[in-house]
Task: inverse folding
């Protein structure tokens, strides 16, 4: 199935919708049935029928079909946030007394799920350096049930060898889960490497317009059915049909946006590497990146995220650099049309919080869809403040 068909046609049965080019938004909570027998049939398999939008809805169903195909999975679920998708994937595969092995420095809400939420119910965890398959092997316990990956992560971009991890999980009876938000399915398909479940913060590249919060979970029909009937229906972290329609709209331009962001990012990384006030660059497709060969093997591209450490003598100098930028917004997230930065110096001295482990001269950049020269001109001006 080719990419353009998935993005533009899959799941859009236009003969059912008056031949409308853009599928309608089924903004309804409820669906009626002409007979008792038809109602009984739907109750027997809610995932395959439309009963109540908390379970299944025609608009979200289109999005599910597209996401499953993009990730080369059998089925998919969509959630009200990436955190919701991650929680369902993990909670659905552990019970009291079980153990999770997770890579170091995962997404903050994954970290909180493991360290603050699941520990209350007797689920333990071990964080490991996922770059080392032997470290993962060593962390396994007799009660380990889940291997949780994030490749690359979204600050310093460490990778895991996905085929090796999938084989390790399979040989030890574990469910392997990966957060694939950094790459999107356009640049990486972990299921091809043998990973069981792929999750996304679809708020990022998948939607791409900074106007919807959405999570995605992809996997086998059996796994998705299990999670649908339990964590999905019970916890109710659904995506509304209007938001699903906006994500479908966003997917139409996924290849164009990913290629543009990747291309501009590569130019800016090359420029940054040559700048005398840049101490270090973190970018998986940089030949000097420690895991460059693995990145090129597993990923078709690296998107718009990179990080730097700058040569600055104080937090105040970093603040002056950041505050002088006009084309980069200070904001969380990434994957939209706008270029963003997360300056770690902003997280130092926050009342009631510990200082981060990353240094205060560290900045994560996201490169959006602006002209490269416009972004470079902005950076040149900001570097004059250092």
Result:
């Amino acid at each position: 199935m080719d990419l353009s068909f998935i993005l533009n046609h899959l799941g859009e049965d236009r003969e059912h919708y008056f031949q409308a080019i853009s599928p309608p938004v089924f903004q309804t909570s409820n669906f009626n049935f002409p007979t008792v027998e038809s109602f009984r049939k739907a109750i027997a398999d809610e995932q395959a029928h439309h009963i109540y939008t908390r379970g299944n809805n025609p608009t979200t169903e289109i999005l599910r079909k597209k996401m499953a195909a993009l990730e080369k999975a059998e089925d998919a679920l969509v959630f009200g946030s990436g955190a919701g998708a991650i929680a369902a994937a993990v909670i659905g595969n552990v019970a009291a007394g079980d153990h999770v092995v997770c890579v170091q420095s995962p997404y903050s809400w994954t970290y909180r799920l493991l360290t603050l939420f699941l520990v209350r119910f007797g689920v333990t965890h071990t964080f490991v350096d996922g770059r080392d398959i032997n470290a993962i092997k060593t962390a396994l316990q007799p009660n380990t049930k889940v291997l949780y990956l994030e490749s690359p992560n979204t600050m310093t971009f460490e990778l895991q060898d996905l085929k090796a991890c999938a084989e390790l999980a399979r040989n030890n009876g574990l469910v392997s889960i990966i957060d694939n938000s950094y790459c999107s399915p356009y640049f990486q398909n972990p299921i091809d490497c043998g990973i069981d479940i792929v999750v996304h913060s679809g708020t990022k590249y998948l939607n791409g317009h900074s106007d919807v919060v959405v999570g995605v979970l992809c996997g086998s029909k059996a796994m998705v059915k299990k999670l649908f009937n339990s964590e999905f229906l019970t916890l109710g972290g659904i995506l509304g049909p209007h938001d699903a329609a906006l994500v479908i709209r966003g997917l139409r331009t996924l290849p164009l946006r990913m290629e543009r962001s990747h291309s501009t990012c590569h130019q800016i990384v090359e420029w940054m590497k040559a700048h005398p006030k840049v101490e270090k660059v973190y970018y998986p497709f940089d030949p000097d990146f420690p895991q460059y060969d693995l990145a090129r093997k597993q990923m078709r591209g690296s998107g718009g995220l990179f990080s730097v450490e700058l040569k600055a003598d104080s937090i105040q100098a970093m603040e002056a650099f950041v505050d002088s930028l006009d084309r980069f917004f200070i904001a969380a997230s990434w994957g939209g049309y706008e270029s963003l930065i997360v300056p770690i110096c902003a997280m130092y001295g926050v009342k009631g919080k510990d200082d981060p482990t990353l240094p205060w001269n560290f900045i994560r950049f996201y490169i959006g869809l602006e002209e490269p020269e416009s972004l470079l001109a902005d950076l040149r001006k900001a570097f004059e403040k250092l």
User: Anything to note?
Assistant: The chain has a mean pLDDT of 97. Residues 254-273 form the longest helix (20 residues).
